[in-house]
Each structure stands twice: as structure tokens, then as C-alpha cells.
Amino acid sequence: MFSGKAKAYTNIALIKYWGKKNQELILPMNNSLSLTLDAFYTETTVTFSTEFTEDQFYLDNQLQDSKATIKISRFLDLARKKTGCTLFAVVKSQNFVPTAAGLASSASGLAALAGAVSAALNLDLSPIALSRLARRGSGSASRSVYGGFAEWEKGTSDETSYATKIISNDFEQDLSMIFIVINDAKKDVSSRDGMQRTVETSSFYDGWLQSVPKDLAKAKAAIAAKDFTALGEVTEASALKMHGTTLAATPPFTYWSAESMKAMNLVRQLRTTGVSCYFTMDAGPNVKVLVERKNEEKVLDELAKHFDPTQLIVAHAGPSIEILSTEEA
Ligand code: 2P0
Q1: Could you tell me which of 24, 179, 8, 26 has the C-alpha nearest to residue 106?
Q2: Dist. CA 28–CA 22, nearest whole Å
Q3: Which pLDDT band holds residue 105 (cuts at 50, 70, 90)?
């Protein structure tokens, strides 16, 4: 019996990943840049044993159906192939999210799975190799291998597409990200389907791709200079451009709800009163507000006038992936 356990934190992209050029290998169309956060994480244990007759996947103590398990099996196959291991595995994953807010993240989940399986099979992977493996599970997971800021280099092949840490002189310690949790009755378009539809049909997609290198350079320069305003401006611009592409897809779609718009407007209003803060959004209606830690209370107080306190979750920069144990029995 071999077992490994890992803990990985989620990350939020400041420069977004949106679109794949290779869906099988998960090679993205553009580089992305993220901040790993401390508030949400996943702990995963993978155990291989001769006694198991199939792969099983438990999420938050619930045995998952065959659809969810097949995805995990395919991912395990990548690691099994590396070592010639033919054993079945039991995967137990626990998502740690402050409220029942539906913020489960594939970034922390697939990064933790990659860490746990590599520990169980003694793959002895470098951070780059672990990032490449995590990427095969979910693109954004490639960035959760690192604490603080990370950049996922799009690359041109399985070998050359991976994330690396951005050296930041601890700038990330000055930052807070406030999640405004917006639950919406609308049927979701998954990020996987949404980005693919956009690549294939959106007349705005070329504009998105052209704008990313400049935004990425601005974000990296802002991090190097510890320039919060510049980082906030480019973060908000990247999110708006990404979301703009969905409006020109066929059929068109949006992740924004009326509550998302209300939150974004509040952030803009706060800026007009001299409080520096910026928003970003991902493939859902929640809004995340980037703010300097010194202004966190001020922004929270203002948001609390318009949203229920249970909708507001504060996160700070989080650490890199942790391999918690490797056991052989
Ligand atoms: C990001 N998102 O950069 C972007 C911004 C959502 C919007 O990465 O298909 O779960 O598994 O590679 O990583 C969410 O997509 O997608 C995501 P797959 P993933 O964070």
C-alpha cells in the first residue's frame, strides 16, 4: 500500500487564463498571472493498494459518481504511466471553504491531487514538473503549486507549459482580496465550456489575445515596483476584457448577474471617494475585490452596508503546496 497527502491553496488570476489551444494537454492560448490565497484550500490523500478493485473518489466524505471518478482516474493514469504502477487508488479530498458558498475550486483541488499522487508514487517532482502535472488536471491548478504570485507560461507543448513563482519582494503581504459571494439561480456555463465556446465563436477573442502580453507586462512591472494602483488597474482591465469576449460568443453568455454589477459599481464608487480598490471576476457571479491590507477594514465596512456579512470573505496571500505525508505499508 502506498499513500500520499497534500494540501494546496486556491489562486485567483489577476491576468486571466481564457481559452485552450490544446484541450487534451490543457495548453492555454495565453499566459496568466495569479495570486495564491490563504482562505480556501483542499487536502487530498491518495492511497494505492493491491486490495482495491476500482478507483474511488470521495469529496468531503461523499463517494462520488462514475462521471466525477472517471476524471480522477484519467488524471491518476498520467501518474501511473510514469511509474508503471497498475494499482487502483482511493482518493479522499476535503475542500476547506469558510462558508457553504459554493466556492469549491478546481485550482486547489487538482493541485492537491497532483501533490498527493506524486507523493504516493514517490515521483520526486520539481515544482515545475508538479506544475505541469497539475495543469493536466485543470489549467489554473498549475499556478497553485506556488505561494504568492505565479505566472503560467503558455508554452507550446506539454514540456514547456507550466507556472513559475514571481519574485515580489513580499508585495503580496500588503494585499487583501475580499470575496463578495453572490449566489445566483442562473444555470452555469462551466469555465471549460465557456472558454472553448469563446475561442471558437467570439469575434472579440482576437482582441483579447492581442491585449494579454501588454497587460501581463504591466502587471509584472507593477509587482516589481510594488505599485498597487497599477496592479489594480490592470487586474480590473483583464477581467473586463475576458468577460467582454463572452458577450460576442455564439450563443452569447455572461457570468455577470445584477448583484455582480452592483458589487462592481460599489468598487468604482469607493474609488471616487479616494479608497483604492479594484475588482475581478471569474467564471461565476462572485466578485473579488483587490485592496491594500491597510484599507481592508474601510472597504469591508462599506461593502457590509450593501451585502450580508456572511457574503463577505477576506483572504490574504497563501503559501505554496504542502506535501503532508508519504507512507508505504
Ligand atoms: C483563471 N479561470 O485564470 C480563469 C479565469 C476562470 C476565469 O482558470 O478547463 O478550472 O480545467 O483548465 O482552470 C477556470 O478554469 O479550467 C479558470 P480547465 P479551469 O483562473
Answers
A1: 8
A2: 7
A3: confident
| Range of the structural domain that residue 270 is part of | 173-315
Residue to substitute in 35, 149, 195, 280 for testing ligand 1 pocket (most ligand atoms within 8 angstroms of CB): 195
Cα 139 to Cα 263: distance, rounded to the nearest angstrom:
27
Distance in angstroms (rounded) separating the CA atoms of residues 220 and 240: 19
Number of domains, the chain: 2
Tell me, in angstroms, the distance from the centre of ligand 1 to residue 19's CA: 9
Under 8 Å between Cβ of 23 and 190: no
Q: How far apart are CA 168 and CA 170, in angstroms?
A: 5
Check if 189 has its Cβ closer than 6 Å to any atom of ligand 1: no
In this structure, what C-alpha cell is assigned to residue 256?
455577470
The pLDDT tens digits of the residues spanning 302-315 come to 999 999 999 999 99
Does residue 329 lie in a domain region?
no
